[in-house]
Structure formats: C-alpha cells, structure tokens
Amino acid sequence: CSATIAYAESIDAVPQNMGEIKPMVMASVPRLYEKMYARVLDNVELGSPLKQKIFHWAVSVGREYVKRQQNKQKIGSALQFKRNLAYKLVFSKLAERVGGRIKFFISGGAPLSPEIAEFFGAAGLMILEGYGLTETSPLISVNRVDKFRFGTVGPIAPGVEVKIAEDGEICARGPNIMVGYYKKEAETREAIDEEGWFHTGDIGIIDEDGFLKITDRKKNIIVTAVVRTLPRNPLKI
C-alpha cells in the first residue's frame, strides 16, 4: 500500500492543481472550502434561469439524500433515482472540477460552516471535519464517511477518552496526549492534571450519539461573582 502526497502551489492555484493531481483525499482549512463554495454560487448566478432551477433542485435532492445517510434512514428507490439524476446533471460537473476522484475532503484548524458542509455533502463531496491540537498528536475526534453529523467535529477517536469538565471545558486523555512542554514544567502541570487529563481550553458538548461539538473558547467565558456565562454570540461549528 502506498500513497503520493502533493501540495498546492498557492490557494489560487488549487483548482488547477486538483485537475492535474486528481486527488482522492484532500485536507485543508475551511477558508478553501468557503472559496470553492462561493465560486460555485457565482457560476450558478451567471447561468440561465433554467440552469439555476435545475441546480437548486439537485441541491435539495442531495440534501435530503445525505440527511437520510446521516440519520441512518432508508433511502427509497424514488430518492435514489432523483439523486442519480441530480449527480448526472449537476454534481458530476463539480466532481470533475476537483479532479474526478475525490473520496472525501478533510477540514480542520477552524470552524467549518454547517451550510458549506451540507452543500458539499449533498453534492457527494463529503467534507469530514475533525478536531485536535498539537498536544494531542493531533486528533481527538473526527467525522467518518460512515458516521458523520454536520455541525460537529465527529465521534471520539478510538483509544482517546474525552470528558466535559464542570465548566464545560473539553478534556482529553490517552496515548496521543503529549508528555509535556519541553523544559516548561509549570505550563505542563497547568495543561495536564494529576489524572492525566489534558485541558484543551475549548468549551463543548457531547451529544446523545457521542458526537463532539465545540461551542467556544474557555478564555471567552465571562466570570461573575454568581455565575459563569458565555458570550452573547458563542463560536459555532
């Protein structure tokens, strides 16, 4: 088993490079997917009213299809037929623009808009959002092709333990956690407690199905004499 890794020449050269490399998997930050999404919408606006109508129909079909996939619901023959037609008329062209072989994209480093994740999912170009830090080598959680939920950073990775502290902070423990910061014992003790839990500095929740969702940074919490409250506009992922 082997793989070839390629690096884009620049963010502006990504479309051309994808056509040359024809990647099967691609990892990037949300900003790239935002630019790709915006370019698609710009092209749609330049099309005829009929082409716009077909595009929006295809997206609505794709959203219903991927929603059923996400919820492990049955996909009937009628929906499957419409999805196949939507792919032939619209989504196949998007797939060709990214090289024609993409299995999935990976996103990390910043929050990915659920709207963008749902659009690419509807088009059959799944973006799998994950979460982690340098100190966690770097993975804590990640969505998978067979287990994903838009708006989350996925289920906890195998071998990793995660708990939500009383103040809402995400804490992780496992073989992926660093030993410590080099020659910085005080910082290490502050980051990793006596039970081996690494304190990420992020605030989040784990839903009833085990998907992790990040809602804010701990440093953004406002502490008062009575209660701890979150900012009026918390970070959404």
TrEMBL record:
<dbReference type="InterPro" id="IPR000873">
    <property type="entry name" value="AMP-dep_synth/lig_dom"/>
</dbReference>
<protein>
    <submittedName>
        <fullName>Long-chain fatty acid--CoA ligase</fullName>
    </submittedName>
</protein>
<dbReference type="GO" id="GO:0004467">
    <property type="term" value="F:long-chain fatty acid-CoA ligase activity"/>
</dbReference>
<dbReference type="Pfam" id="PF00501">
    <property type="entry name" value="AMP-binding"/>
</dbReference>
<keyword id="KW-0436">Ligase</keyword>
<dbReference type="InterPro" id="IPR042099">
    <property type="entry name" value="ANL_N_sf"/>
</dbReference>
<dbReference type="GO" id="GO:0016020">
    <property type="term" value="C:membrane"/>
</dbReference>
<feature type="domain" description="AMP-dependent synthetase/ligase">
    <location>
        <begin position="13"/>
        <end position="182"/>
    </location>
</feature>
